[in-house]
């Protein structure tokens, strides 16, 4: 019996981040690797109360739900969106099984094999993998300290022949993964104009925007676009999630999009999982209705801000100008670049031996990686672990450096 | 802004069953339509206790989980499988977001556009839709009172030129949807031989086998195959779910397959939803460990058996030999065929006006539907509603018959 797999699954590569998992459980290991929020910041008590309330409804709480999502959860999410400056009725929200599913739906509904996806680069690896497995052509768009480089994007668009123009552009505009940068308002406006001119869909992935360390708030790109077009004409598909602010284990994400996109997305979702767990949805709705969400987010912001500062200070004190990075103003990630030609991938084994794990930068590129880069997440470890972890990383660099010198 | 959707989603059709949803909420409506289990049979108390227990673990209960699934749930499922006569270690089980996701994964991992899927027909509509949206060529294999007609299948396989041979064959061998039939052991054995000879994967969808009205148990096809081949060579991908026996709202399904299929399925699932809700998984594991599962299933079997008998008796007493059907020995569905040329699709509007809704048979065919057929589910309505609903259906047939006579 020999099985012929589908073309993308003949010899598929796993997630480069998930491949680091075996290291995470080693005793004493400090992890800067995963995009995991800190479990100590989850409001476990509030979630337990929400679960108890959600499951008192009797048998009906355990039945199938609608593909589009639970009405009361969609109303809560609509209110949450309004708070972010994005006005949409609950009927324009599709609940998904995490925002990962929302992106998978977008790919199915929009992309044929061979279609072009522009992706800000470096980018979230699961996005790259989903696009690669769907057989799309990934074109990397560079970023800088203000996020996606929209001027370069414009040059690329104007230079591309029609068959190489993108159908979608993927970006995490607010506290990006992996760079932690934020796209400026000017760029958001220009990006919308380009999407309308070149007729591509902007996939705005927004799991982190509420994890802000300053009071400055920027409108979602979707909301920027809605100033000049109707909901039917909005070129943005907006994705978000409760995974970084409430709890990943609920697997609650959502999509806001034009009716044409939403209708097809619901049909796709029918064949994917029929509906997102109504138990999870009821817990999430109950939790959001409890009024505990703002305080939970506020304490996460305060703690992540502290951890980020600790990490930035430790990196500067241990590595000085051997490392370059922008200090994030929100989110969970710090993106670093070694200035003296040391490749963090080659240091990786040393670092693991010393008890710290992180993601070498190549994981965030579909092609042509910048080998001198790395991503550190400061969300899961506490400040003390962060200081120790950075010290171990510096030691690993030193060891690798002297090994290199010895082998010369 | 004009969006070009992917080819399958240019003008997609929704689920023919979900399109009946608006009728279901009409006052006084009796529904034989959905494949919904009866919420009155859910063990709400046991599930609430399981949820309370599962969520006491603190923050870690709300974190991301592994793509393959929670270890304790997989151990519980392995024990459940052993009870069904299918021995597999927990490591050979992939937890999925309902068995719908498991099937979606199978399609992704195995099927290229244009590949051939053999599907027992009539068949579950969401299967047909998932295969159609993936651009596969669906070939219908007939069934009879003993399930999939394996002799006809063999003729089809021998007659097919290599490019038209199937990569997968889809079947619900035990209490099929929509027919309620059970594939005999002889046929299971022959089917395995054919899969090995013609090198196709048997997708064995098994959500209903525990809902049996008699003591007779048949081995899953996977277990039949494992008598003669190693797990690596087993041509069966086995799918199941807790949706029909515990609660659909948990969205817990699973897959048992060869290591080569499982490894790729986990990679596919990473891009689909990262992991199935760890909250749902913990509730399910806790519930299965509580020991309440066997009694819950036993009372569902007893009640569904009563409802099925009530429906069969009512159909016979109201319609006599105008309707043909096999009395199911388990599951949730009765498949009927009108003997006198009356098309249940054309009667549908009359029936809705009289307060009963069901699924006309055409929904269960990818092509060439038998227009005289219909599916009644006896799972959700109680016995009194079943009697009233069948009477209304008979009345609708009568009205349509006289309208037809008048218009002649």
Number of strands of chain A: 14
Give the averaged pLDDT of chain A, no decimals: 94
- How many discrete structural domains of chain A? 2
List unreliable stretches of 5+ residues of chain A: none
Strand pairing plus helix content of chain A: what structural class? alpha/beta
Strand numbers in spatial order across the main sheet of chain A = 2-9-8-7-6-3-4-5
- For the CA atoms, what is the radius of gyration of chain A? 22 Å
GO molecular function (chains A, B): 2-aminoadipate transaminase activity
InterPro entries (chains A, B): Aminotransferase_I/II_large, Class-I_PLP-dep_aminotransf, PyrdxlP-dep_Trfase, PyrdxlP-dep_Trfase_major, PyrdxlP-dep_Trfase_small
Protein name (chains A, B): 2-aminoadipate transaminase
Pfam families (chains A, B): Aminotran_1_2 (PF00155)
Please provide a written account of the structure.
By secondary structure, chain A is α/β, with parallel strands linked by helices. The first copy, chain A, has 2 domains: 7-43 and 294-407, Aspartate Aminotransferase, domain 1 (Alpha-Beta Complex); 61-292, Aspartate Aminotransferase, domain 2 (3-Layer(aba) Sandwich), CATH 3.40.640. Chain A has 13 helices and 14 strands. The first copy, chain A, has an 8-stranded mixed β-sheet, sandwiched between helices. In chain A, strands 10-11-14-13 form a 4-stranded antiparallel β-sheet. In chain A, α2 crosses α10, α4 packs across α9 and α12 (344-354) packs across α13 (383-407). Chain A starts with 20 loop residues before the first helix and ends with a helix. Chains A and B meet through α2, α4, α5, α9 and α10 of A and α2, α4, α5, α9 and α10 of B. Chains A, B: Keywords: Aminotransferase, Pyridoxal phosphate, Transferase. Chains A, B: It holds the Pfam family Aminotran_1_2.
């Amino acid at each position: 019996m020999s099985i012929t797999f589908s073309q993308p699954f003949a010899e598929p590569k796993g997630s480069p981040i998930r491949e680091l998992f075996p290291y995470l459980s080693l005793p004493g290991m400090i992890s800067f690797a995963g995009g995991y929020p800190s479990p100590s910041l989850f409001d476990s008590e509030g979630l337990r109360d929400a679960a108890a309330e959600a499951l008192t409804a009797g048998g009906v709480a355990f039945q199938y739900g609608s593909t589009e999502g639970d009405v009361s959860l969609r109303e809560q999410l609509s209110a949450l969106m309004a708070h972010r400056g994005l006005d949409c009725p609950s009927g324009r929200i599709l609940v998904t099984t995490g925002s990962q599913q929302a992106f998978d739906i977008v790919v199915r509904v929009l992309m044929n094999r061979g279609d072009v996806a522009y992706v800000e680069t470096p980018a979230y690896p699961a996005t790259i993998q989903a696009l690669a497995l769907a057989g799309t052509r990934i074109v990397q768009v560079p970023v800088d300290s203000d996020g996606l480089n929209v001027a370069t994007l414009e040059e690329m668009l104007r230079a591309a022949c029609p068959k190489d123009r993108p159908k979608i552009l993927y970006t995490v505009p607010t506290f990006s993964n992996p760079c932690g940068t934020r796209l400026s308002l000017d760029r958001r406006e220009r990006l919308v104009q380009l999407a309308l001119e070149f007729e591509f869909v902007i996939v705005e992935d927004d799991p982190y925007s509420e994890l802000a360390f300053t009071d400055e708030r920027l409108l979602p790109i979707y909301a920027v676009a809605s100033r000049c077009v109707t909901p039917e004409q909005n070129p943005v598909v907006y994705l978000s999630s409760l995974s970084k602010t409430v709890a990943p284990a609920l697997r609650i994400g959502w999509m806001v999009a034009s009716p044409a996109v939403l209708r097809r997305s619901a049909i796709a979702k029918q064949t994917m999982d029929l509906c997102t767990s109504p138990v999870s949805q009821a817990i999430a709705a109950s939790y959001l209705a409890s009024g505990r969400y703002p305080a939970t987010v506020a304490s996460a912001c305060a703690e992540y801000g502290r951890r980020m500062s600790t990490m930035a200070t430790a990196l500067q004190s241990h590595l000085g100008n051997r490392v370059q990075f922008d200090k994030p103003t929100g989110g969970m990630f710090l993106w670093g670049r070694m200035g003296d030609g040391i490749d963090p991938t080659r240091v990786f084994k040393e670092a693991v031996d010393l008890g710290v794990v992180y993601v070498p930068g190549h994981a965030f590129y579909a092609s042509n990686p910048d080998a001198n880069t790395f991503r550190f997440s400061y969300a899961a470890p506490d400040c003390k672990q962060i200081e120790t972890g950075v010290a171990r990383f510096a030691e690993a660099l030193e060891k690798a450096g002297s090994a290199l010198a010895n082998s010369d």
